[in-house]
Amino acid sequence: MGSDVCDQSPVTARVWDCASDIAGFDVRRLCLKGPLPKLDKTQYQQVAVTTVNIACLEALRAKGPVGESCVAGHSVGEFSALYAAGVLSLEDVFRGVAARGRIMQALAEQTEGAMYAIKGIDRDGIAELIALHELADRITVANDNSPRQQVISGCKLALKELLPVLLREGFEQVRLPVNGAWHSSLMRPGAEDFQAVIDSLSFAAPRVPVFGNQAADRLSSIEQLRADLVTNLYSTVRWRETMQNLAASGVRLCLEVGPKKVLSRLLLDFPALQDQLSTRHVAELIVTKPASAVTE
Asked: Of the listed 20, 74, 75, 185, which one is catalytic?
């Protein structure tokens, strides 16, 4: 992962160096050589994905001005978005991401959690089924990704009760390759420690509007930016509404900055936005007009 932007230039090399120095492990080696089971652990994965995100952004900027009009990031991608908007320095991004990964990894090891992507259902539909089976205290809608994709997160035993119901209803389900229940109540015990980390970082006013995961809209103050990051640890990523609000604000081209075309594919689930939003991926390294930078 990230071989195309690893040490491509002194600027991208600095990103990898900074990530390794602050996280305390060799990010280059892990991304390029593995082992894969280690990369699947969130304390390593979050740092690795953020490194590739930002290295891709810097490689793109080396080609010329990106011209982004606003930014948004999915889950830990919020940190990459804040870097793109000039809110956080490179060093503070990796301080925040490394701490987030460590806190979540520790909680994952103390709990029995898992996550599943459920296809063909919207947030109201999945929430209704969770409530109907009295599982709302143990299962959370972790990611409202699109009108046709939800990610649920929570206790394995509770998920074991709900998944057969979803299967009988005809909804496809895919277990995510993660080692914990992200964006669920099982992560809430980490909020206080993560708040202390966020409070220690230096935030600047954003150069362009930042759309947060919790507000699903523009965040107008540094206090809101801080709060969004902390609450995001244990709450639903409101990505569907974020994309709808980006379109409503006038965005017409979204540039996905990250190792894979994940968020771009989600737009296929938005029939109402097909004539409003188009997407490109950073791998093309070409921007022909102002875009919204979206990070995963």
From this structure: 75
Q: Which amino acid is at 285?
A: L
- Is 75 an active-site residue? yes
Instruction: Kindly report the CATH number that applies to the domain delimited by 3-108+185-295.
Output: 3.40.366.10
| Residue 286 clears pLDDT 50, i.e. is over it | no
183 is catalytic: yes
pLDDT digits (tens, 9 = 90+) for 237-278: 999 999 999 999 999 999 999 888 888 889 889 988 988 888
Q: Per residue in 98-120, pLDDT tens?
A: 999 999 999 999 999 999 999 99
User: Among 80, 153, 183, 184, which one carries the catalytic annotation?
Assistant: 183
- pLDDT for residue 34 is more than 90: no
How far, in Å, CA of 232 to CA of 96, rounded? 13
Residues in the chain, overall count: 296
Whole-number average pLDDT of the chain: 92
Selecting from 3.30.70.250, 2.40.50.140, 3.30.930.10, 3.30.559.10, what CATH number does the domain 112-175 have?
Answer: 3.30.70.250
Decide if pLDDT at 30 tops 50: yes
